[in-house]
């Protein structure tokens, strides 16, 4: 009730507080979270643009194979599609973002007998320079991405799926330890760095334990022939002998593992339970001893071997990866649950009510505090100045 003889005037402090309260309430009431896309259905962005996306529970990183076009290539995309279907049924609340690894992924089709011999017996590198540069670029980018995302989104987990050259890139990034901190898992399909004794989990695939990837074999051959003497013909003969040992499965596993560690291709033991590798028998990329022996004896070229073994190297489709996909699905479904859309809506409504009540409460407190000045006016006819009280 308004008291006779009194008027109220709003002082500067009240006006400022009221304005701030009104703005806060208006902002809160209009900032309603939109329903989040689960992330599976959208197109992936390049890894170099990963920071244009919001943080997610899982960041899917697809690394395509040699000569494949961005973004993923068919093998990686097949895995992505199958996981999307499974998670849509079992855990639609999993929040996911996608990137494709931004790297050259050059082809290996131009490698022939002479170039393989040069790779192993030469003094520069044990693999084709263009291929090496491509792998190094991919490894550097994957390591950069992992570090940047760990800083930007510390709770985000990485799921890396690599095929062929992309699997080698992922293996090298694992070997550097760059993925250890936020790794949910890595899927390596037709890995050129596959070898006996590798720290991996193999649930699918038909290749034997004594299968060796093309790049792994070349690094091992280079290590075995380092410092060898004699003319080129004698060196080539020794090279063929070592390849035959690879083919026969009589290579010393410890020596091979040592060569892999020396080339930065060893997966750390702690990552083994979350690193799933699949190799099909006769795949000239991950089970290369037979193909490599023919290339070195000039019976064929790597391009021809890849063409002849194309069905094997292209066998990494979801129907051939059941146990691997089950394992990855288990990791994804084991993630903490996010609030369902109806729960988010209820929380939003509750928050609105709370904001309204808080706003009213603030207004009452401010009105009863020092922000209001009461001015008492003299009754008419009494004269004198007005008196004011705070």
From TrEMBL:
GO molecular function: carboxylic ester hydrolase activity
InterPro entries (UniProt xref): AB_hydrolase_fold (IPR029058), Cutinase/axe (IPR000675)
Residues spanning the signal sequence: 1-36
Domain of life: Bacteria
SMART domains in the cross-refs: Cutinase
E.C. numbers: 3.-.-.-
TM regions (residue ranges): 354-375
Region of interest (Disordered), residue spans: 300-322
Key words, A-Z: Disulfide bond, Hydrolase, Membrane, Serine esterase, Signal, Transmembrane, Transmembrane helix
Polar residues bias locations: 309-318
Family: Belongs to the cutinase family.
UniProt xrefs under PANTHER family: CUTINASE 4 (PTHR33630:SF9), CUTINASE RV1984C-RELATED-RELATED (PTHR33630)
Name this protein carries in UniProt: Alpha/Beta hydrolase fold
